[in-house]
Amino acid sequence: MKRRGMLRAVAGLLLAALLAAASVACGNVGESGGSGPGAEGGEGPTITVGSKNFTEQYILGNMYALALEDAGFNVERRLNLGSEQIADRALQNGRIDLYPEYTGTALVAILDYGEKKLARLDTPEATYRKAKELYARREPADTMLRPAPFNNTYGIFVRREVAERYDLKTLSDLAEASPNLIFVSFSEFQNRQDGFPNMKENYPALDFKEIEIVNSIGLRYQGVLQGEGDVGIGFTTDGQLASDRLVVLEDPKNIWPFYQPAPVVRTEVLERHPEIREVLNEVSASLDVETMRRLNGQVDLQKEDPEDVAREYLEKEGLIN
After folding, report:
1. What phi and psi values does residue 112 have, to the nearest 5 degrees?
2. How far apart are CA 282 and CA 289, in angstroms?
3. The model's pTM
């Protein structure tokens, strides 16, 4: 499988420009501060909230921070930490007190739960219970609170005209047509065992003409929509998937684990401040896949600020004043 550099070079230039603009116009994304009242100090205990480095994580991290501030905590934000390994190291060394993680991701990428054993966890609840159990065994221990009731799994998508030309409805169809197609992926998906290696193992006919690596979600969608690639990888809660120009392919073999987002909290922090549990569980319980896709779309498509989107949602739901 060949790799070409055109999309990568274009993506790098565009991403640099976007990041430069974001640092001026949208300072809270990726910053450790925050504009909420708790970030400015107060009488309550201080909790440090982290997140990984994509839109949904920024929104969830801000939701957790805002809900805790409303409950009387001072909150320091350390959002946009990077991958789950970086976020987890920050949790383990006490640099952050909590961050949102996904149940399947925790088992695959953090807790070293074997792929074959993971495949036997055939319900979201079983996946959550196992992740919670393994977090609790660590030293120092962490606690995974209740997850939100939606599955943010991988979504393989194609332009509608590509789907119609090759009669693509499922990943099995895609595997047969793949020698004619360019796949726009990202490095983490290519390297994680539950990502492309899992896809290739279950659909062995996959052999894309070319694979482009574009680590920005927005630029991956842009590349496929503009015809620089034919197939892309996103997540089922991405706002872009509401577009009628894209078709999400079905996975008849159900190869992906369950990925429900949940707060992971340092256990010693939770023991000192048990009220955190109820505050964050209420936030998680309020979310569903349609809501998360809409909120992600407000940031990615309508260019709203993640903290503003989180605040508006929590206020509307009556979760903060």
Report:
1. 55, 40
2. 16
3. 0.80
